[in-house]
User: Fold this.
Amino acid sequence: MTPSTHFTAGNTPDAPRSDLPGLLESLAADLRGIGYTVDGVAELLGAAAHSALARDQLVPALIVTEAARNGEPRTAALAAVVRFWLLAEPQSAATLDAALPGIGTAGLLELGLVEPSADGLVQAKVDLRPYGWDGTPGDGTPGDGTPGDGTPGEDTVSSGGAELWVASDLAAHQRPGVLRHDHVLGIGQASTTLVQVTARRHVARALDLGTGCGIQTFHLLHHAEHVTATDISGRALAFTRFNLLLNAGQLHLDPSDLEARVSLRQGSLLDPVAAEEFELVVSNPPFVITPRSLGEAAADQFTYRDGGLPGDDIVAALVRDLPSVLSPAGTAQLLGNWEIPAGAAWDERPQGWAGPDTDVWFIQREQVSPEQYAETWLQDASESRDRRLYQDSYAAYLDDFASRNVEAVGFGMLWLRRPAEGSTPVLRRFEEITYPIEQPVGPHLGAAVERADWLAGHDLAAAHLLVAEDVTEERHQRPGAEHPGVILLRQGAGLRRTNLLSTELAGFVSACDGDLSVGQIIGALEALLGGGEGWDGGTFRGGLLTEVGNLVRDGFLLPA
Assistant:
C-alpha cells in the first residue's frame, strides 16, 4: 500500500514548473497569438502531412514547416513552434525568442520546458501540443465534446470553444532510446477512447483515477463541480498541475485557489480516496499485463502503464473495489485488459470479478494473442530498439502468459454502478463488439442504461413503443421466393447493432407506431399466426415479449 498525499508542489524535479503564474500566462498568450491550436496546426501542415503526423511519421511535416519558416512572421513563428514541440527539432534561442516574444527562451528554461542541446541550440524537454473540444456532450459532429489532439483521425474535431495545450513527456517517435520508467504519457488512443465512451452528466464530485497528464480531468471539469485527480506518480501530477494552470482561463479555474475545483492526490489505486464517495469515476488505469521478476522495484516499472501487479489483477481489483467509492447511483467507467485462458470464454474470468450488488457492463473491443500483446507493448516503450532487451523481454512475456495458460488477451471498456438506495442491480451484461461504432459513444451508453432502468420499472406489456429513428430494416430472399429468408434490423447510430428477426418479431416491429400497446400487438399476432395443432399460446406470448424487451434494451424500440 502506498500512502496518499495531497499534491500541491509547483516545482517537481524533472517536470514542468507550475508555480510561476506570470510565465504561464505569457506562454499561453504567445501560443494563442501565433495560432498554435488544433485548427492552426492542421491548416499549416495541410491534409497529407497532418495525416502522416497522426501515424507518428514526422518527415512530411518537417518538409512543410521547413518551407513555412520563410513565410510571413506569424506563419514562420507557428512553423518554428510546431518543429520544436511536435517534431522535436532543436531551434536556436533567437528563433524561439522571435516566435514566443512574451516568454522567450529564458522563460521556457525557467519553466523547465526546454534545455540547451550539445550543438548550442535549444531542445524540447517535453511535448507541448494543442488540444481542443467544446466541452459539451454531443452527437458525434465536430465540436461536440470529442477530443482533438492536433492530429487527424476519428477522434479529431475542430477545437470548438476551448483551445488548450497539453504537456507530456516526449513520445517514442520524438526521442532516441527506451522510454524512461516514469514516463508521463500524452494524448493517446486509450485516453481519447475513454473520453469518448464516458457518459457525461452533471455531478457534484468526480474522480479521475490515474490521471496521467490530466486529459480526463479537463473533460470532467465541464460537467463536475469538483474533480479529484489521483496518480501514483509525482511527475504525472506535476504535469497535470502544469496543464491545469496553463489552461486555467479556458477551464474556469482560479490559479490562486486550484483546490476549489481540483484536488490532486498522490497514491496507489483507491488509497488516496479511501472512505470518500463520488458520483462519477473515470479511469484509464495502468492495466498493461507485464511479467513480474524477483527483486523488481517500482523504479523498474513503466508507471504510466504497469500497476505492479501480476497478470490482470489491477483490473480485477478495480472492478471489485470501485463500488466502495461510488455514491448511491454513482457510476464508474474505465478501460482494461483481461486474460483469457485456453478453452475458456472471454468473459469467464471478468464475470467472477463483479459482485452481485453492482450493475456491470463489459464490452470487449479486441482480442489478441500473447505474441501480439508482447509486440505491442515492447514497441510502445521503444524496447525494440535494444535487440537483446527486446528478445529477453519478449521471452519473458511468453513465459509469463504460459505460466497461467493464457491463450489470448482481451481489451475493452467497463461500466459499473452502485445501485441507488433501496434498489437492486438491473444490468449484468458481457458482450463482444469488435466492429466500428459511433463516436462519441458515451451518450448512447448512458441511454442504454436508462432503457435498462425503464424496463426494470415498467410493465412492458402495457407500454407503447416506437421504432428508433436510426433503425432500418433489410430483407433478403432467393429470387422467386414468396417470403424473405432473412430479415435484419440495423442501427445507424451508437453501437450500430444488427438484429436477426423472426417473422413474428418483424411483424411486431412493423406495428410499433405508438398506437397499440405491446400486449395488444402480441395478441393480434397470436390471433393471426396461432391456432394450429400443438400451438402453445403462452410460450408464443412469453417468447415474443422477451424478444421485444431485448429490442428495447438495445435501442431498436423506444417508449412512446
Notes: Residues 135-161 have pLDDT under 50 and may be disordered. The longest strand covers residues 326-341.
